[in-house]
Amino acid sequence: MAAPTEQMSAISLNKPKGSAKRDALCAAEIEVQAMWEKEKAFECDPIEGSTGTTDDKFIVTFPYPYSNGHLHLGHAFSLTKAVFRAQFERNRGKNSLFPFAFHCTGMPIQAAANKLKSEMEQFGVPPKFPEEDPEVRAKMEAELAAAAKAKADKAAASGNKAKGGKTKLVQKSGTGIVRQWNILKRMVPEEEIPQFADPIHWLMYFPPIGVEHMKRFGSGVDWRRAFITTSVNGYYDAFIRWQFNVLREKGKVLFGKRNNVYSIVDGQVCADHDRSEG
Q1: What is the number of other CB atoms lying within 10 angstroms of the CB of residue 210?
Q2: 70: left (phi > 0), else alpha (psi -120 to 50), else beta?
Q3: Rounded Cα gap, residues 70 and 102, in angstroms
């Protein structure tokens, strides 16, 4: 058995320097956030006798994040502005409302679910991707390197300055192949991944995690006034239908032909960032 001094030295080496203040702050955060939850500090209700002006009320909104994964640092960076302003106005005595939502409409979730389903059908569960074979991977990387060199040589011969030989995608994956299974493996337990072949499962899985992360962030949201989009939420769906019907009646929604990005796999138009190639 090691001597007490040796044990203490080993512990101090493994423990981050100056962590006492950090640990105290984290403990205080949890304690205060529990108090906020108990006291319903951020729930905002209409006030009787309100003047109907902005003198005694304030609302702030945030572009609701897309729910095909966890919230990230970019969300936190932008979120701070809304959090600080909502709390500033609350401290001024205003009835300050900060609602929130999670964006689930559009093709990204559906396309990701389709891609995962295709991978499982083609490569099994859990999938055995060909690029995981060292020989196959080495061959693919060699082919990519040769193609990049040929492109650079061609550019040099024509007198044009060649851009980087590898894209960010190739630099990260080595082969340029990004598998949906591997993306999800970084966020969810592997045994649960097959459930994500159903796009509705994404809607049920990621928003609740987002709520917990937001609470841990101390966001000050009135979570009674939170929702997800898509027709799964009947209230949101009815609002969007009403909105478009009104716009159509006013002649603001028209039918016509124009060039658009089209998904051959899904058989419909899609947003520019939703396509995987082309």
Answers
A1: 20
A2: beta
A3: 11
pLDDT in tens, 204-257: 999 999 999 999 999 999 999 999 999 999 999 999 999 999 999 999 988 888
Strand 268-269 relative to strand 57-59, pairing: unpaired
DSSP structural state of residue 163: -
Q: What is the pLDDT of residue 268?
A: 80
CA 171 – CA 130 distance, rounded (Å)? 18
Q: What is the pLDDT of residue 83?
A: 94
Tokens read off for 172: 């990260």
d(CA 253, CA 247): 6
Question: Within its chain, how far is the Cα of 150 from the centroid?
Answer: 37
Q: For residues 231 and 229, give the distance between their C-alpha atoms in angstroms, rounded to a whole number.
A: 7
Domains (ranges, CATH) in the chain? 21-106+198-274 (3.40.50.620), 109-194 (no CATH)
Summarize the confidence of residues 87-101 as an average pLDDT.
93
Whether the CB-CB separation of 95 and 44 falls below 8 Å is answered with yes
> What integer pLDDT is reported at residue 141 of this predicted model?
80
Q: Give 66 or 47, the one with higher predicted confidence.
A: 66
Supply angle C-alpha 173, 174, 176, rounded to 5.
65
Residue 23 has pLDDT above 70, yes or no: yes
